[in-house]
């Protein structure tokens, strides 16, 4: 069945659907992708290790809070709470939030007293505004107060 005013396509079915394998429309096999393109980009790790300036190392996964005495007031038991030993109290009780998703590790400052700064490998320091999420790559350093951690 052709649309009004248009001749029927040769080899078209009565339903009006064109036959994609018609002799008038040659079928071309898609080009094979080079091996480098065929491999998808590797997925970021689902866990990261945070190596703190205090010597502490913590493996993180999912979502969580970092601080001197982090606690979740929302009652979400799935949050990972990472306590930082900071006798000088430069790290807020609940300083920052982290989340790992399909793109990698994200850090968000939670309006901390002394701020959060990210230094990407080979980059310059980027201070975070409260509530702003920023991605941190492997090898990046995050400064929270007078303490810091390296992402591995």
UniProtKB/TrEMBL annotation:
Organism from which the protein derives: Agreia bicolorata
Family matches, as Gene3D superfamilies: 2.60.200.20
Keywords, in A-Z order: Phosphoprotein
Name the record gives this protein: FHA domain-containing protein
Membrane-crossing residue ranges in chain numbering: none
FHA domain boundaries: 64-118
InterPro entries noted in UniProt: FHA_dom (IPR000253), SMAD_FHA_dom_sf (IPR008984)
